[in-house]
Design goal:
About 20% of the residues lie in helices and about 25% in strands. It is an alpha+beta fold and about 170 residues long.
């Protein structure tokens, strides 16, 4: 996944970021570094000036692999676990439930919200939370679904007299 600095910085955006010190903020060059409190530009997922999505970066290059099957109109209901080990997934496909067993391993890549949801639907998670929803505990793991953090984004809109604008949004992190 290509991550880079923005290719073009609008003059108004540049003036905004440069004003950080005027209000006592640190100018941050990389919000992935340990020091992320301040004002700066977001990095973008672009390659050669085009957005580089996860699908473009990871799926497109391997579409012809014989060991890759992409299912559409399919929702994973739960991870199948046997003796504490993930062995496959149960899905809803065309109004029927189907089990797919893995030859080697199960990789869970459902995002920050759906990964813990799927783990808990599978009985993997905090016992108290699973008990509350009558889900049998397969693996008690108290950290599942915890410590989710959001990053706030503030948008400022104002009509100006010039064509300069925030075409690339700077980031302000308190």
């Amino acid at each position: 996944l290509a991550v880079s600095h923005v290719r073009h910085v609008n003059p108004l955006s540049q003036a905004f970021v440069e004003s950080a010190s005027d209000v006592g903020l640190v100018q941050v060059n990389d919000f992935n570094s340990p020091e992320r409190h301040g004002l700066g530009y977001y990095h973008v997922t672009q390659k050669n000036g085009q957005r580089c999505s996860a699908a473009k970066a990871y799926i497109a290059p391997v579409l012809t692999r014989k060991n890759l099957t992409i299912l559409t109109r399919t929702q994973v209901n739960k991870i199948l676990v046997k003796e504490g080990r993930a062995i496959g997934v149960q899905v809803k496909q065309d109004h029927r439930v189907v089990d797919y067993l893995a030859a080697k391993e199960v990789l869970l890549c459902a995002g920050a919200i759906n990964s813990p949801q799927l783990l808990m639907l599978s009985g993997i998670g905090p016992k108290a939370e699973l008990d509350k929803h009558n889900i049998p505990v397969v693996v008690a793991s108290p950290g599942v679904g915890k410590n989710l953090q959001d990053h706030l984004d503030v948008m400022i809109q104002n009509q100006g007299k010039t064509r300069d604008s925030y075409s690339v949004m700077p980031a302000l992190v308190p």
